[in-house]
Design a protein that fits this description.
alpha/beta, 7 strands
Length: about 240
């Protein structure tokens, strides 16, 4: 059974207050529409295993928004690239909360892009666009390569692979913000070579106030990426940096 608007709005506002993120009435309604459409579309395609109202708020909306609490971004007009956005996380919640910034949502599955395009139109999100394609291909294209202030990703791949997917999209002097679980220390140990090769360094690891143990990995790109990267998908998966 779907959650009624009153219950949804009260719980959403209560939880976001823990992040010190105030919500306007318009934003609450946008999140509710997003939730309703997610449930409807999920009946005909696999967008998420999480469909109960409180869980959608906790594990999708709150979790996505926690980035802005853990790593406040004060600049206006900055650009974000969300790689492997899936059903729009964290990109669409961030775009709702930061209408002053631009968001590019990338995913390799056209059905998910269709859902995202529907949501962008329904919510009148003029600051969001979608791109269909594989990261390995898009990362080589001039229109996307080294164009973004912030590259964000949530639950896409282990860190050595994720770095090769994501770093090519970041500007020199840009940041990558990756949501990671309690295995982060192990993944960082696996990624020493990838960080060196891709001219990227760890700037911070911030515990985020999620319902489960989570960290935000903050990376800084100090030099342009070699044209060698990203490699073809077979090599990335078979032989991670």
């Amino acid at each position: 059974m779907s959650m009624e608007f009153q219950d949804f709005s009260e719980y959403l506002i209560q939880e976001f207050s823990k992040l010190q993120i105030p919500l306007e009435d318009k934003q609450v309604r946008m999140f509710f529409q997003y939730y309703e459409e997610l449930i409807i579309w999920n009946k005909k395609m696999n967008l998420t295993a999480i469909t109960e109202g409180h869980e959608v708020i906790d594990k999708h909306f709150f979790d996505s928004a926690s980035l802005l609490s853990a790593y406040p971004i004060k600049e206006k007009g900055v650009s974000f690239c969300d790689i492997g956005t899936g059903a729009g996380f964290p990109g669409i919640p961030l775009a709702i909360l930061r209408p002053d910034c631009s968001f590019t949502l990338m995913d390799s599955l056209q059905k998910r892009i269709d859902f995202l395009d529907h949501m962008i139109q329904l919510l009148s999100l003029e600051n969001v666009r979608t791109i269909h394609g594989r990261f390995e291909d898009l990362g080589k294209k001039t229109e996307f390569r080294e164009k973004y202030d912030y590259v964000v990703s949530r639950a896409v791949a282990r860190l050595p692979m994720l770095l090769e997917f994501g770093v090519p999209f970041s500007k020199k002097g840009g940041h990558l913000l990756f949501y990671k679980s309690k295995e982060l220390s192990l993944e960082l140990a696996e990624s020493e070579n990838a960080l060196t090769v891709l001219n990227t360094q760890v700037e911070d690891v911030i515990k985020i106030p999620a319902k489960e143990e989570r960290s935000l990995l903050v990376l800084y790109k100090f030099e342009n990426t070699s044209e060698k990267y990203p490699r073809n998908p077979g090599r990335i998966k078979k032989n991670p940096l």
